[in-house]
Each structure stands twice: as C-alpha cells, then as structure tokens.
C-alpha cells in the first residue's frame, strides 16, 4: 500500500497465489490512479522511478480496477479469500466478500476465544510476529522491503500450520495471552506510581526494595513485570497505603 491524499492508501503491488497448489496467480505492480503522497519506499521497495519503469514496460496494471478484474479471473463469489488483515486489501480493491479466512483473526481468536462475533478483538498480531513466533520463519526482516509474494506464502504457511496443529496453536495462544496479561499489569503499576510519586530519595527506595526483595525472596532483576503494589500487598499493607512515604 502507498499513501495518497486525505490520509488514504491505494494499491501499488498485488500478489495472489493458489492456496492449495501454491501456484502464483498474480504478482504485478499496480499503477496509482491519483497523486501519491507517500510511496513508503522503505516498506514497499517501490519508488516513483520503479513504478514509472514498470508502467512503461507493461509490468504494471493500469490501475486498481484492472488489478481487481484480473483477480476475478481466478475467483468468484464462492471462492474463499485467504490473507492477513484482508479488510485493508479488500477495501483498496473495492471488494465486498464474506468468504474469507484471515490469519490475523484466526490467531487472535485463539488468544481471546471469549470474544463475541460482534465484539472487536483486543488486539491482533502482525504477520511478521506470527510467522516468527509460530513457525520460526523470518519475513520482512532487516532493511529489505516487504515482498508481497513472500508474505502471501507466509500467510499460507501460517493457516496450514494452524489447521494441522491445533494443540500447538493453543500453546502459542496461551503464551501470547500470558504476555498480554503481564503487559497490562505492568502498565497499571506504572500508572499508579505516576499518580502517587514517593517522596523518598532514590537511595532510600533502592535500600527498601532490597529489604523487601530479600524478605519475600523476589528477584526484581529477573522479573521485568515488577509491581510495587503486589509486593506491598504480600507484606500485609492495605491497598492504597504507601509505606515508603514520609
């Protein structure tokens, strides 16, 4: 995707593969039909010169409508579209389709299974993160621009893995849910510390932290989710009382 006016985005390249066979159906530039504000070259690898060359050489669709027409040569209303965050792709192609499998939704629903059909998922994971943590597959790494074709294959690999390995998907989801809980706990603690800043000196705080740590055998250095309120609660202090204030 590249940026155009009014904070919108449009298609600059399209890749589509057959999910079952892995055959490449489309992998082609798409010439923008309006002024480009941001080519997002570091991400897309596309510059104005690259697009101009592709257009002149016939290696680009004339616009997104032509790209959509070519896509429909391989699909119809009964086709299942598979992708990552497909809503963005379908939007720029002007397509409304209700037969989809979205790897972003599939993996996020594994983490948040209680989310209702009309509720928004608390968060989704990027294709890069899912491919790495679930498949140990590196994509979109280093200074290289994204490859739409490689991303398409990565989505296929993720979906196939999830279908074939439900227990491993469940284990992956449990780890992600635990991480989310730890992040939320850490965020709440930071908020409490900001609202109730201690008046003790830094040296005094460090001393009292060591005492508290030794007494309850916590290792703060090994626990990046350190939360003062939890330690205070374990020490028997009432909620909201700051034992370190003067």
UniProtKB/TrEMBL annotation:
UniProt cross-references to CDD domains, sorted A to Z: DEDDh_RNase (cd06137)
Cited InterPro entries: REXO1/3/4-like (IPR047021), Ribonucl_H (IPR013520), RNaseH-like_sf (IPR012337), RNaseH_sf (IPR036397)
Example GO biological process: rRNA processing
Domain Exonuclease intervals: 1-168
Keywords, alphabetical: Exonuclease, Hydrolase, Nuclease
GO cellular component: a single term: nucleus
Region of interest called Disordered, as start-end residue ranges on this chain: 183-206
Extent of Basic residues compositional bias: 184-195
Gene Ontology molecular function: any one: exonuclease activity
Name by which UniProt lists this protein: Exonuclease domain-containing protein
Organism: Aspergillus eucalypticola (strain CBS 122712 / IBT 29274)
